[in-house]
Amino acid sequence: MFKDSADFRRVASGVLLIAAPLLQLVALLVDPGTWGDEREAVSYGADPVLSQVQSVLYHWSYLLAGLSVFGLLHVMRRRTVVFGHLAGTLTILGYVNGSALLMTDPVEWWLGRHHTPAESERILGEMLDLPGVVFGFQMPWLFFAIFGLPVLLIGVWRAGFAHWAVPLVAVLSSAGSMVTEYGPLTVPFWAATAGAVGWVGVRMLRMSREEWISYYPTAAPGRTTPDSYANTTA
Q1: Are 226 and 4 contacting, i.e. CB atoms less than 8 angstroms apart?
Q2: Stated pTM of the model
Q3: Residue 202 in contact with residue 161, Cβ under 8 Å?
């Protein structure tokens, strides 16, 4: 299936761009808090199994989203290179920190089983308001995950790889999900994001090996490309 590392990277990038937002959308759909009480201290009691499933799905969607950024950076090698690397690095950091924060879910679930919802929220709020948690995991890192992907897609469009509608949909859906309360109204916004990002993933999967390799830097003294490397090791 894979002729070399270039083919593997192309397919892996395309699959990740499809899978990451899709897992996030599925997590939203199975989350009891989406359709009921958004407080996890309550939703865990309503359906402990689905509450744990959604938490795991969110965790892996964020990790895979961070990895998928490398695929976006690849198609930004010709134009918007510096912009892509700066925005891409911050986006990856945002997704990694977002994934780490999901470890608070079991804490909130445990609190919900031993305290009232109001008391659970108070205790968890005091824990999350600790300076080490705020500045080590939340601020400003979570904003990089929320806004980083739409910004990167603008760079992908400017690089000539995606239609202008792709970043537009991502920006509007991200903004819409931010101004609406977490719940059923979030579903169409996240579905739109999954569609926009997934389109880029499909575009990569349909590329030929030669098209993918063409995005590598031009061969020059001291510069290594997949073809030049293959020639030296043949």
Answers
A1: yes
A2: 0.85
A3: no
